[in-house]
Every structure is written in C-alpha cells, then in structure tokens.
Amino acid sequence: MLKRRVIPVMLWKDIGLVKGVGFDSWRRTGTILPQIRVYNLRCVDELILLDIGATAEGREPDYETIRDVAPECFVPLTVGGGIRTLEQVGRLLLAGADKISINSEVYSNPGLITAIARRYGSQCVVVSVDVRRTADGYECFRHSGSLATGIGPVEWAIEAERRGAGELLLTSIERDGTMTGYDLELVKAVSDAVRIPVIAGGGAGTFEHLHDALVCGGASAVAASSMFHFTQQTPLEAKEYLAARGVPVRRFAVSGERRTNR
Questions:
Q1: Which residues pair with 142 in a beta bridge?
Q2: Using an 8 Å Cβ cutoff, are 182 and 212 in contact?
Q3: Which of 8, 53, 156, 188 has the greatest count of CB atoms below 10 A from its CB?
Q4: Phi, psi of 222 (to 5 degrees)
Q5: At residue 28, what are phi and psi to the nearest 5 degrees?
Q6: Which of 48, 141, 58 is nearest to 103 (CA)?
Q7: DSSP state of 249
Q8: Where are the beta strands (DSSP E) in the chain?
Q9: Planar angle of CA 30, 34, 39, nearest 5 degrees
Q10: Mean pLDDT of all residues in 16-34
Q11: With contact defined as beta carbons under 8 Å apart, do 105 and 112 qualify?
Q12: CA 193 to CA 156: how far, in whole Å?
C-alpha cells in the first residue's frame, strides 16, 4: 500500500515567508532557511516552496535563492512561482529543486505540462490547482486566486493528468489559512477523477483534518502550513496520529545528507 505523505508548504513573498487567509492578508512568518532546518528535524516527507509574488510581478523564479537553500533540505523539494518556460524548469532543477509546481501559465499553455514531463519525467511535474466555490459549483483560479479560468477542477485535473502531470496540489482558496478543515467534497471529487496522486491543501488545523482528507477525501498526501506555523502541532506528531489510526505513513530517520530523488 502506498504511504501517505505529510507536506508542509512555505509561501515566499519578497524577502521572507508569509501566511495569509484566503490567499490574502499576508503576515510574516520568518525566513526560508531556518524554517527548512526546523522541518528537517520533524520527519516531513517533502517540502513545497511557492514564490507567490513571482507571477504577479512578471519575474522569473529566484534561482539564486533556491541554489542557496536546496543543499540544506534533506527531503524532496518542490518549487513553484513564476515558471513559464521549459528552460526555467531546467534551471530550477539544476539549482536544486526536485520537482516543480506550475499553475497560472499552463491554463493558457497546457502543452508546457507535456513538455516538462517528456524532458524530465512526470514525477517532476506538480500541477497546482487553486479552487473557489462559486454559485455554479467549483471553479479554478489563476494568478494567486485573482483570475477566474472558467474551468472546473475535475475537468482540469483530468486534462492535467492526460497532459503528463505526475501530481496535483489541490487547494481550496476559501479554506486557505482558516484551519477549519479541508473541503472534503472537493478533495474527493478530484481524487476520484484521476489516478495520479492528489495533495490536499487549504484548511488544515488539526490532525483529524489530515486524517479526513486522506481517508474520507481519498487524497494521497496532505499539505499544511498554518497549523505548523501557528500551533504547537508538528509534522512528526501528525504522522504518529495517522499511524495510530491505521493510515500508512512514511517513517525515516533524519540524515545529515541531502536526500534526492533525481
């Protein structure tokens, strides 16, 4: 049976890490390198680092920062924000990223998913799907939740998988930062529609929320940020909670060497 993963998300804006509610109202939470070093000690399965300002500002990923922090990360590192070309993906991987997360660009250029998968493998491509609940159902949004796409998340998830995505990072914009629990209806609808792993995001506040997303929602992994930044709950404790309730989770000893899967 595939192990379920617990994945902290770090949102990066300007010179440091931030956390907001509903993709807004940002507050500072520290800097990247110390946070990575803390997570190294807490048995996380992977880390996701998203530069949430890059696309809005029309700039490329910050390769230098990734090159500085990646050697200190002992688990697979997914990097997103500002990615528009295959060349940029290659530069991020050379800088130390293990996977890349893409969102805004691929709505207008879905062929980029296929190009990345063909060049670097599907396991490298995480398509980020940010979703709002509307009067007509669910709709995907781009540019940090500011622009509607007119596409439903199930439809887009199926298309992303067909194009070659290896994973989906599914986030409920309304639930983001609220710590009130994942949108289980959304998580289950998308998880049931595709065969690739779905990482549930947006709303985690307790270990029970993680359990529900994995067991009731059918997610393959859970992403969380606020519950690890603003409460005393840790990723290691989350995995112990899940294991005690029969959810298969990964266990590994913290190593002094960077762990890679390239």
A1: 147
A2: yes
A3: 8
A4: -125, 135
A5: -70, 140
A6: 141
A7: B
A8: 5-13, 16-21, 24-30, 47-51, 77-80, 99-102, 125-134, 137-142, 147-148, 167-172, 198-201, 221-224
A9: 105
A10: 76
A11: yes
A12: 10
pLDDT-based confidence at residue 17 (cuts at 50, 70, 90): confident
pLDDT for the residue 171: 96
Contact 201, 170 (CB under 8 A): yes
Amino acid at 225: S
Helix boundaries (H) for 96-139: 104-108, 111-120
Any idea what DSSP says for residue 2? Answer: P
Is pLDDT above 70 for 210? Answer: yes
Q: Where are the alpha helices (DSSP H) in 15-173?
A: 32-40, 54-57, 63-69, 86-95, 104-108, 111-120, 153-163
Other beta carbons less than 10 A from residue 250's beta carbon: 16
Is pLDDT above 50 for 222? yes
Compute the distance between CA of residue 76 and CA of residue 94 in angstroms, rounded to an integer. 14
DSSP 15: T
Per-domain residue ranges of the chain: 5-244
Other C-beta atoms closer than 10 Å to the C-beta of 115 total: 17
Burial 94-103 (b: 16+ CB within 10 A, else e): ebbbbbbbbb
Name the residue with tokens 């669910």. 138
In whole angstroms, give the CA distance from residue 117 to residue 136: 33
Say which residues have a Cβ less than 8 Å from residue 232's Cβ, sequence separation at least 6: none
**CATH superfamily assigned to domain 5-244:** Aldolase class I (3.20.20.70)
- In this structure, the dihedral spanned by the alpha carbons of residues 190, 145, 102 and 34, taken in order and rounded to 10 degrees, is -110
